[in-house]
Design goal:
3-stranded antiparallel β-sheet; 10 strands
Length: about 230
């Protein structure tokens, strides 16, 4: 698998336990391609697919190959936030978020509410981080383990998060996307849409060859993306 491009959010500061660890422009969208049989078995289109980051404590150094496991996202990230994965609640809420708003996060141009493509990408990535690190238990970008600066991106992320199933409504989840985690003990874990949730085997390793941040690929992807509503 080859990393071919990246587009990030508008740059809102994100904090873990009060310490700034990232900005949304450092998160997804990450664009990949692959011709490997392992990728073709799980991905709807292995020639061009996207991921979002689910781990703020590790990174990706481009230009070298890696091996990733493709696993049930509820058991990711690995080694996890505070030593624990996101769990079933966080995973279910992310699958609902993805189903409802992946088109918003990947569409181009300004939408009817005035949000730019970068702001929607950032809001989506921020929402994923919130559900990973607070495990879907405390869904609040102003408190909990993961917090974010008060920006338009944060406002939109809060709106999307408030739409999700929660404890007050008995976790009545909406429609769910089919997602899996790409995990490594030493590199940043990613979230990807798959044909079906994987039943992982110890040998189900995917080789990644990252060939650098090819920002020109962003223009290629935008031609494939639909305009914002």
């Amino acid at each position: 698998m080859t990393l071919v491009g990246h587009e990030g959010g508008a740059g809102t500061n994100v904090y873990l336990d009060g310490t700034r660890v990232a900005r949304t422009n450092q998160g997804g969208l990450f664009y990949w391609s692959s011709s490997s049989p392992e990728a073709q078995a799980f991905l709807p289109n292995s020639d061009s697919f996207l991921t979002f980051c689910i781990e703020l404590t590790q990174d990706i150094a481009f230009g070298q190959p890696y091996e990733y496991n493709i696993i049930d996202m509820a058991t990711a990230p690995m080694p996890g936030s505070n030593g624990t994965p996101m769990g079933d609640t966080g995973a279910r809420l992310i699958r609902e978020l993805w189903y409802s708003h992946i088109d918003d996060a990947t569409s181009s141009g300004m939408d009817a509410a005035g949000y730019t493509a970068a702001q929607r990408q950032g809001a989506f990535q921020m929402s994923i981080w919130e559900l990973v690190y607070d495990e879907g238990v405390e869904i609040d970008l102003s408190s909990g383990l993961l917090t974010a600066s008060n920006t338009d991106e944060t406002t939109l992320a809060t709106q999307w998060l408030n739409e999700l199933g929660n404890a007050e409504d008995g976790f009545t989840y909406g429609n769910q996307a089919s997602l899996a985690a790409l995990t490594s003990n030493t590199r940043q874990d990613q979230l990807v849409e798959v044909e079906a949730a994987p039943v992982p085997e110890p040998s189900s390793l995917l080789a990644f060859a990252g060939l650098g941040m090819c920002f020109g690929a962003g223009s290629w992807w935008r031609r494939r993306r639909k305009p914002a509503a």
